[in-house]
């Protein structure tokens, strides 16, 4: 058997597993090169850092199944990873090197794409932008989009039940997934890839795996729903007085058309942050406005009213009645993309703007305007020197509620000392509003303690029971989402 260079942190069980993988599947299937592993040891925001003595990279579902079976027999923990674009440390390995990384990035085939059935079967490592491009080439669309489209992978999007900017019309990944193929913690393969309209065989295992963050199984492929291709679109940037005005505008648009697919809201201070840190961005409106709304309407039928004319017709009375203060409809695709670039660059700008706590939360849609204003004011009053900023997807109640650190603080000290108190306060406000502490990014390791603190005991009992039943040794993505009870893990 070929010998490999193993770091001192490698346990005998990990060593044996890596050597077996290399022997059976070749040099592409595993590496212990620290330089090759290093980029995948931290989360996208740089908040969480781990260690892994090896990176496993299977190329097929059968290889994933074989690796997981070996790991299950040896009790070796695995951390599944796709594009590593998550926001809650859900794909970061433990700091003690007790788990190996399992990358799905080599599994990047679109197995099929059918315009007739409006379905695509994509492997876990397929990049979102590539799937969208393939669907477009076939006259269809995959209606999920987000800023990380160039690196986020299908497996990660399924495993976190990702949302994005088109949830308003098409829902989250849970609504867009018609079938799932996954490797379960014992190495067996769940073949739920068929897109069945009716299936009454008891518990829905596909839905159980969606949003499970790789703790119950490793998604290797998914059957995804496509929608008709876009004939034309229009993108508008609208200035409004408040989130309440924005919601009233959304309801007005919804009463007039079903063509609106995106409705994003952000305060002027967030726009300023993007303009400051993202080169090439500029203000869409000539007038200063306290709040901004980004709207996209789409036509899928050439005979339908052109989206630009539709938005102009619907926005004109809103401007006349004071529901909107100013508006511009993009005159070209380049201008439309420049509007969307602002929205998709917010995370980049926030990261460049200094230490901040990001809270991905949801509240009832009708309560979102109040929460954005009153919640921000309450957080700033409770923690002097901080600045609370809220933006998000107004149509589905998803608020990105960020609290920036006071000027001049030591980031590490602030995150460690003030961070937990601030996040707990924000989450308490969310629960009081009848909302959720995780809207679209998952629980990961960032919110695990808060999920425990704020969930009903019955909920946590069920979550642990499911984890213990499917993964009794706790080998899949340890330390994420939910932990086994101390006496539940098998030896």
What are the main properties of this structure?
single chain, 491 residues, alpha+beta, Uridine Diphospho-n-acetylenolpyruvylglucosamine Reductase, domain 2, Uridine Diphospho-n-acetylenolpyruvylglucosamine Reductase, domain 3, 5-stranded antiparallel beta sheet, 18 strands, globular, disordered N terminus
Number of strands: 18
The second-level CATH architecture of the largest domain is 2-Layer Sandwich
Number of helices: 18
β content, as a range? Answer: 15-25%
Instruction: Give the low-pLDDT segments.
Output: 1-8
Q: Which percent range fits the helix content?
A: 25-40%
Structural class: alpha+beta
* Rg: 23 Å
Number of domains: 4
Summarize the entry for a quick read:
With 491 residues, this protein is an alpha+beta fold. 36% of the residues lie in helices and 20% in strands.
Can you walk me through this structure?
It is a single chain. By secondary structure, the protein is an alpha+beta fold. The chain has helices spanning 12-25, 34-37, 61-74, 128-137, 154-159, 167-170, 173-176, 205-209, 243-256, 268-277, 307-320, 333-344, 346-352, 368-382, 411-417, 419-432, 448-454, 457-470, and strands spanning 30-31, 55-56, 77-81, 99-103, 110-114, 119-123, 140-141, 177-183, 189-192, 218-225, 227-228, 232-240, 260-267, 291-299, 326-329, 356-362, 387-393, 398-404. A 7-stranded antiparallel sheet has the order 15-12-14-13-17-18-16, sandwiched between helices. β17 (387-393) and β18 (398-404) form a beta hairpin. α1 (12-25) runs antiparallel to α3, α9 crosses α11 (307-320) and α9 (243-256) runs antiparallel to α14. 48% of the residues are buried.
